[in-house]
Amino acid sequence: MAQHKIRPMNITIVGAGNVAWHLAPALQAAGHKITAIYSRTLAHAKELSRRLSDTLATQSLDFTTIATDVVLIAVPDAVIVAVANELKVKPGAILAHTSGSQPLTVLQTIAGERAGVFYPLQTFSKQKPVDLQQVPVLVEGVMEETTKVLEELAQSISRQVARVDSEKRKQLHLAAVFACNFTNHLLGISHELLQHAGLPINLLQPLVQETIEKATAHHPFTVQTGPAIRHDQNVIEEHLRLLQTEPELQQLYRLLTDSIQHRSKKG
Q: Which of 138, 164, 238, 251 is most enclosed, with most CB atoms within 10 A?
């Protein structure tokens, strides 16, 4: 737990997906009260509320009878505005979304000076526990008072809290997609290739771990290895031959090879 005095807040969470699944218990453990969980599917709201203490599970976005200091909108980007427009809360409640790619302004026209962003920079899945103390939480508010409240809330669950504006957060989210989503997709392709060859996927685990450790200890481009950086055309052509029945993977292999070689020249 973060080493500072906690001011308990009443938190309402809109959404019961992966982000809410991790945020709600962490906020409760930090001393806050999760007053309500909303989901379009009541069963999902109930599933999450059962992990909490005395939390209402609801399909209604009318929270005017519920004590709420902060409403965290943890829903897909495409429906943030629609959901926020339907929200009814007591005067003074802060409305903050948890998106990395959406700007503060999507809530500003709805919540005015009480609009904010509360973005935990991590990949979340219900089946995998996450230590939020190690997760950066990035906050932004229309007004200084709003920002301070969100900052305090973030500091109650994380040791890494920073104020980041919408433009910088978009760039950070873009970088995160490359670092996380694309990396995971490439690992999935690697697993499929091994399975096709009848080989166990755990053979790659030490390699993957060493790659990540090196890439976080040094600039990744300075520790790049493999046939592309060596310009080993014989190996590259053999790999492309092995992918001849997978034209999409051939194209991806060529694009990544070209990118590695191009950036090595720039360095």
A: 138
